[in-house]
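Hi support team,

I've been running sequence recovery on a batch of backbones for a student project. Most finish fine, but this one hangs at about 90% for roughly twenty minutes before it completes. I'm not sure whether the input is malformed or the queue is just slow. I've pasted the C-alpha cells below so you can try to reproduce it. Let me know if you need the job ID as well.

Thanks,
M.K.
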C-alpha cells in the first residue's frame, strides 16, 4: 500500500530505508533478507515446469518401464521448451504448463488406456 501511495512501481532498498524514516539501515534490510532466504528450503530449487514434469513422471506406476518414463519426460520437457515461445503459455503457472505437457506426453505413448486413466486419477 505504501508503494501505491508513494507512486512506486518497484521497490529498492533505499526506498525502504527512506520509508522507515531511517530507523533501519540498508545493511539491516540486506541481512534480514539473507536470513529469510537461508530459512527457505525452495531457494535452491526454483519450481520450474521441467521440475514439475519430473515430479509427475516419478508418480507413474511401477508397471511403466524406465524407457517409457524417460520418453514421457523428454517429450514433456520438449513441449515445455516449445511453450516458452507462446506468450499465452508464459503467463501460466509452471505446474499447469507441466501438467499440459505431461498429458500430451502420456497420450502419445503406447500405454494401455487403463494405465493412462489410473495415472490421471492418481495425480488429479
Amino acid at each position: 500500500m505504501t508503494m501505491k501511495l508513494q507512486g512506486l512501481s518497484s521497490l529498492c532498498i533505499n526506498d525502504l530505508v527512506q520509508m522507515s524514516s531511517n530507523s533501519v539501515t540498508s545493511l539491516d534490510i540486506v541481512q534480514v533478507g539473507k536470513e529469510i532466504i537461508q530459512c527457505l528450503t525452495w531457494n535452491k530449487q526454483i519450481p520450474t515446469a521441467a521440475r514439475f514434469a519430473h515430479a509427475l513422471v516419478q508418480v507413474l506406476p511401477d508397471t511403466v518401464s524406465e524407457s517409457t518414463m524417460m520418453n514421457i519426460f523428454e517429450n514433456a520437457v520438449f513441449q515445455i521448451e516449445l511453450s516458452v515461445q507462446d506468450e499465452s503459455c508464459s503467463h501460466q503457472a509452471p505446474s499447469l504448463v507441466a501438467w499440459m505437457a505431461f498429458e500430451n506426453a502420456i497420450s502419445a505413448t503406447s500405454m494401455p488406456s487403463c494405465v493412462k486413466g489410473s495415472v490421471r486419477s492418481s495425480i488429479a
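--
Follow-up from support: It reproduced on our side and the slowdown came from queue contention, not your input. The chain has eight helices and no strands. No action needed from you.
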